[in-house]
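User
Here is a favour to ask of a fellow structure person. I am asking you to supply a protein in sequence and structure-token form. Please set it down just below, with no commentary around it:

Assistant
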Amino acid sequence: MSQQEKFFEYINSGYAIKGDFINLGAAMLGEQTITNAFVKVPLKTLNRHGLIAGATGTGKTKTLQVLAENLSDKGIPVLLMDVKGDLSGLAQPSAGHPKIEERHKVIGFPFQANKFPVEILTVSEQNGTRIRATISEFGPVLLSRILNLSESQEGIMTIIFKYCDDHKLPLLDLKDFKKVLQYITNEGKVELESEYGRISTSSTGAILRKIIEIEHQGGDLFFGEKSFEVEDLTRVDENGRGIISVLRLTDIQDKPKFFSTFMLQLLAEVYQTFPEQGDSDRPELIIFIDEAHLVFEEATKVLLNQIESVVKLIRSKGIGLYFVTQNPNDVPEDILAQLGLKIQHSLRAFTAKDRKAIKLAAENYPNSEYYNTSEVLTQLGIGEAFVSVLNEKGIPTPLARTLFRAPMSRMDVLTDKELEEVINNSKIIHKYNQKIDRESAYELLNNKIESSILAAEKAKRKEEFDKEREKFETEKAKQVTKTSTRRSTAQDPFVKILTSATFVRAVFGVLGKLMK
């Protein structure tokens, strides 16, 4: 048996799958593609997460596109984080090309162009179905993360959330939170400190300034109602194909804190919402996180621990997470160890640091008698990658240099008109794009402050009235006393005698005699 025949048998036995699967392409021995030596991913292990890595321009985005298309065809919904803005083409079929036909002939199956059901989502000013979340849903830890608060400021943030919970003040949007900060610094300062202890006015002022900063960065568009229901990520179309939700993030690349915190909040919401699935034959939802280094590069240890916990636990809900980045080292080791499917495109060795990184990347893959992994990593062509997956028993498959199939959809963005058509055809856009502003902390505190002002004015008026009444009563009492005194003197019998005419004449008579 020739080496090529041995390799063919090696691949086909290693990737033998009894259940349903996705065909990624054909294995390569050296520079030669072995036709019909298919590299497959079983649907059963897709919830064991994955990694797509490689230098810029090596084909990561097209690999992501291929996976999303095939998942949709299998009836599995997909969420894509479109940071670079080049994934909307999934909504239109590929224009085809002779090189694509040639590639598929070498792989061993024909090329078929197709378009897929796409939902355009947005968290910013871009058009699309709007994703929102309330301040309360984020909670003090994640909100502190976005605002980059100090440890003492995080403590104040926790107190503020506790105060609002205890006093039934819903925190829905940024104006709610700003109002609470202003209230506890001024009118409600005594009330808050009597219940929860003293807080620093300078710290609340610093938090308020950071809230205003994130408001100017578009946070006022994201925080509020109606909150996005993650169940809407698991829809299928009338043909049973999974909806591919493309979340447009091109205008928040320079806001890594917002991006990473939003991602963790979304994952936490998915984990809390979805039921335990057990050992299922297919996942409920696959989430691709492009430019994954944005999630990790500025994450605190606490946040990393939270992400690691979510990655470990969320697969039991039938959710698969796939991180797309340039180098496997962008992903923390504890999380990298949880990723079952690894697709490694070419890496560039321009510096000593690059060569060291390549050697480390090669250690993430099984040893193979057919490849010098670290050497081949620098020789992979565009649309080629090393692949290692978990088979149906959860065992890593043989490492395979793979020539990937071409995307069935357009490998370019939609035109403005095409994009508008996709957005207008959304079945959920009217559900989320009408902003709701129900009574919350802002209105309740305004009412409370207004009531306090009215009560104070009423008390002041009552006090002034009471003073006037007291003054009036005092004057009246004085008048009554004078009148009473005059009346009593005039009626006294002795006074009557002294003032009688007879008495007067007698007195004057006596005086007359004495004068003589």
